[in-house]
């Protein structure tokens, strides 16, 4: 009887514990589902919330769900994946215990994503994504967000492998799913992917269409303004508009300070410095180059030597060879350090993969290679010193030549002063002629008003007045023939020799007037024609001179 009572008591205790356990598991599941619903918009918040839970205290189903959310949040917060063991365990659980769950498809997709982030390039990246795609298509009511996820990363993998046509197909499917789920963030990310896929193929027209769509999201999505400005900067750089590209990159700095975007400041300052170098604004380039060094966060980054090399190159262009040498040595030291670090990493990998003897042999070969690199770098430094010494010698010789050329320059300046005085006189004559022509136009108007009085009352007077006006207008039109000049005078004005008889009388007159700094309106007045006719004649004259490889300095506008 006592044993029966004890057995019944144990059964009741187990039922109570099971019931309490189920309630606890349901509560955890609801909490995980709540975090899952906000993982796209607030991944960092979800990541921080997951840290408050000990996964070892969860049942197997919730532990798998927890692992999936951790992988997703880590991916969306740009955590570097060192292993795919967690997502593999999640995928294995759903494959065995709940293969019809949407989370199984998500787990398969993120298997490929995690391996991509780890730098894997073999078939183990594609296989889980393809399997996820097959399962997704077999679903009766497929979730468009899962279709978006699968196709986006398949497109991204093809993009990284330079299969741009296939990438475009996947991204367009991604766009359809993003529209179906009406997710603004997914729409933006897809348009951005399509934009880069077109730009890397230098299809600027299509890229511009996607860029216009991306720009419409500006100030509408949190954290996306950086990507819009960066895309605009790259577009303007590829279309040879460096000033606009620089403007966008400076706006990226403002976003960094005001919106706290996750931007590597040192690299951004480096890009701006390089932009100023292209614009030949070396002082600004030097300022941003030094700021790039000041804002280096990761001192172990293997490419840090590029920041010092950039300062050295700018200082060399400025003629500050002392500063250039200081930063060049620092860049050289950092480059050697990065090589040494990479060799140490390689040695560790070899020790894990092979036995100690093979690792030591590989390390010895690596050190020999490093020694060759150092010797080569020293040779380059010696060559640089020789080049600097030669440049100093050339500069000294140039100074001597400049002293010899001063007298010639003074003579040329005197001649230029005389020419400027003559040009001033010619300009006054043009203004005088323009005034006379204006008065003629005024008189013509007055004649027209007077002749209206005599058309019917005294037609003879009207015809006489009209004859006088036409004769005056004809005389003005023939002025270019009346004052046609010889070749010597033409050369004195234009410094052009017309030995082949390329120019006619009207073209010579136009070139002489251009030598007198006449504008289009004065040309039209002097040659008694319209502004549009002058523009056409000038264009034809330019083309003729270009074909003959003549000096185009007269066309100074």
Strands, helices and their partners?
Elements (H helix, E strand, L loop, with lengths): L1 H36 L5 H8 L9 H17 L8 H13 L4 H16 L5 H15 L6 H17 L3 H18 L2 H16 L4 H12 L9 H14 L3 H18 L5 H14 L3 H13 L10 H14 L2 H33 L2 H102 L1 H19 L1 H4 L4 H8 L10 H11 L4 H7 L4 H17 L10
Features:
79% helix; elongated; 0% strand; 557 residues; single chain
Give a brief outline of the structure.
By secondary structure, the chain is an all-alpha fold. It has 23 helices and no strands.
Describe the model.
- With 557 residues, this protein is an all-alpha fold.
- The chain has 23 helices and no strands.
- The protein has helices at residues 2-37, 43-50, 60-76, 85-97, 102-117, 123-137, 144-160, 164-181, 184-199, 204-215, 225-238, 242-259, 265-278, 282-294, 305-318, 321-353, 356-457, 459-477, 479-482, 487-494, 505-515, 520-526, 531-547.
Spatial extent as radius of gyration: 40 Å
Parts with pLDDT < 50 across at least 5 consecutive residues: 1-20, 345-359
Share of residues in helices: over 70%
Percent strand: under 5%
Mean model confidence by pLDDT:
77
What is the total tally of β strands?
A: 0
How can the largest sheet be summarized?
Answer: none
**How large is the count of helical segments?**
23
Per the principal axes of the C-alpha atoms, what is the gross shape?
Answer: elongated
Topology pattern, helix = H, strand = E: HHHHHHHHHHHHHHHHHHHHHHH
Kindly, what is the distance between the CA atoms of the first and last residues, rounded to a whole number of angstroms?
A: 116 Å
Tell me which oligomeric state these chains represent.
single chain
Structural class label: mainly alpha
């Amino acid at each position: 009887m006592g044993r029966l009572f004890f057995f019944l008591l144990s059964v009741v205790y187990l039922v109570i514990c099971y019931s309490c356990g189920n309630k606890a598991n349901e509560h955890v599941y609801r909490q995980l589902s709540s975090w899952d619903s906000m993982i796209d918009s607030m991944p960092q918040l979800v990541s921080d919330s997951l840290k408050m839970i000990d996964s070892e205290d969860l049942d197997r189903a919730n532990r798998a769900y927890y692992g999936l959310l951790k992988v997703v949040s880590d991916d969306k917060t740009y955590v570097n994946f060192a292993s795919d063991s967690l997502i593999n365990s999640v995928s294995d659980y759903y494959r065995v215990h709940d293969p019809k769950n949407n989370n199984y498809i998500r787990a398969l997709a993120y298997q490929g994503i995690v391996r991509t982030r780890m730098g894997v390039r073999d078939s183990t990246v594609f296989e889980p994504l393809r399997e996820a795609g097959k399962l997704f298509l077999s679903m009766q009511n497929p979730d468009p967000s899962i279709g978006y996820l699968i196709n986006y990363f398949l497109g991204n993998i093809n993009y990284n492998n330079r299969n741009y046509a296939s990438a475009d197909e996947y991204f367009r499917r991604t766009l359809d799913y993003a529209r179906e789920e009406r997710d603004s963030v997914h729409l933006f990310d897809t348009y951005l992917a399509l934009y880069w896929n077109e730009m890397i193929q230098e299809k600027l027209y299509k890229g511009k269409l996607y860029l216009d769509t991306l720009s419409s999201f500006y100030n509408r999505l949190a954290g996306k303004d950086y990507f819009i400005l960066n895309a605009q900067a790259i577009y303007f750089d590829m279309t040879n508009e460096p000033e606009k590209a620089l403007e966008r990159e400076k706006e990226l700095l403002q976003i960094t300070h005001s919106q706290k975007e996750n931007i590597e400041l040192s690299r951004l300052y480096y890009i701006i410095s390089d932009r100023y170098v292209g614009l030949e604004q070396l002082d600004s380039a030097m300022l941003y180059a030094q700021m790039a060094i000041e804002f280096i966060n990761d001192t172990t980054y293997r490419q840090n030597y590029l920041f010092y090399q950039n300062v050295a190159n700018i200082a060399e262009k400025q003629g500050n060879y002392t500063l250039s040498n200081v930063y060049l040595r620092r860049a050289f030291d950092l480059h050697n350090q990065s090589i040494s670090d990479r060799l140490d990493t390689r040695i560790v990998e070899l020790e894990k993969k092979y036995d100690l003897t093979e690792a030591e042999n590989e390390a010895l070969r690596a050190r020999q290679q490093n020694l060759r690199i150092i010797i080569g770098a020293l040779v380059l430094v010696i060559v640089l010193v020789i080049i600097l010494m030669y440049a100093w010698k050339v500069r000294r010789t140039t100074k001597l030549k400049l002293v010899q050329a001063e007298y010639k320059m003074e003579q040329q300046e005197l001649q230029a002063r005389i020419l400027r005085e003559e040009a001033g006189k010619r300009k006054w004559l043009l203004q005088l002629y323009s005034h006379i022509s204006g008065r003629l136009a005024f008189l013509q108007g007055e004649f027209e008003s007077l002749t209206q009085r005599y058309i019917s009352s005294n037609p003879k007077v009207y015809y006489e007045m009209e004859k006088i006006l036409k004769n005056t207008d004809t005389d003005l039109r023939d002025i270019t023939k009346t004052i046609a000049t010889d070749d010597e005078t033409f050369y004195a004005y234009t410094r052009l020799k017309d030995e082949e008889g390329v120019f006619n009388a009207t073209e010579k007159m136009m070139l002489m007037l251009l030598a007198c700094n006449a504008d289009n309106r004065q040309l039209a007045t002097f040659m008694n024609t319209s502004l549009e006719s002058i523009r056409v004649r000038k264009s034809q004259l330019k083309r003729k001179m270009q074909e003959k490889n003549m000096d185009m300095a007269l066309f100074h506008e």
